[in-house]
Amino acid sequence: MREKHRFLAAVIAVLSVPVLGGCGDGQGGDTDPATAPLTSRAGAVREIGMLGQILADGAPLFGAARAEPLFADLQFTASPNGPSRSCAGGSVTTEEGERDESLRYFAAMRRFAYTRDTFSDCTRQSARATIRQHGVVEYAAEAQHDPANLADSYDYYAEYGDDTEPYVYEVALFSSTPVPEEVSGRFEWRDWDYGREVRSVLTRRAVRTPATGGDLLIRQGRTDAPFSQPPVLGAGVSIDGPYTYDSEVCGFATRSVVGQLQRSDRAYPRNGQLTISTPEGDSLTAVFDAEGNATLNFSDGGSATLEASEVEVALDAPVC
Fold first, then answer.
1. Element containing residue 64 per DSSP (H, E)
2. What is the domain count for the chain?
3. Confidence (pTM)
4. Is the pLDDT assigned to residue 73 strictly greater than 50?
């Protein structure tokens, strides 16, 4: 369950770009969200859910988006504190130190204090879940920082996987079937006194059974165009960048999103707008009001609406 829609919380999954609306007039066309065109209400449902999974509370892993607040200790998020390093089974080795390193997506050189964990089928268990980690994760926080300088920024990065294999994170809640999640790439974020900007280039795969929708592969950002989520002072969050997904249910799609949104306390989109587009020239702009309803305007000249409840369902129960 996506309790409290955590995937939106950090970057305002608001971005969930309910951008797809109803086939021109919002009524006709394919009603199957998995195959509906961008310019359809059913397609909007699909895309909202997909972006909700990408914007998982600032976390690069699907598991963090799925986990309920009760399992906060099990969530793997982009944090300078890094993942848990306790293993009931398997092992983990840790390397710590300082070095100068360039931020790839902010074009800056910094001195970082880093922690590099190498997990070898490390498992741990609580009363509610079993977690398995395998592969390399490196976290780093800027070592030279003056917190009294409010105009200064504070930089971090997290790197997942290495040249040989991706990082694997697997959570099984209660008696549920575990879903291994493979992540490769880099996540960088910069803290300002007024908010946090996140930039990422990641490849993420959820390995699922056909009965639960099959594998889902997401690529967010490119080296020359990272997926970006900058803060907007007093006005929510902006989202900008390319992504692709490949789903056994929803097929393959290339998308770009740009926009600015606010959110409610429960992390649903409120006010602002987003536009999602395809390389072929199709696009949809979703304009949100204060109640969370979305007006959809399509590149073919049509329009449609999604009620707030429809947006929420799309975010809470993604099709792909």
1. helix 62-66
2. 1
3. 0.81
4. no
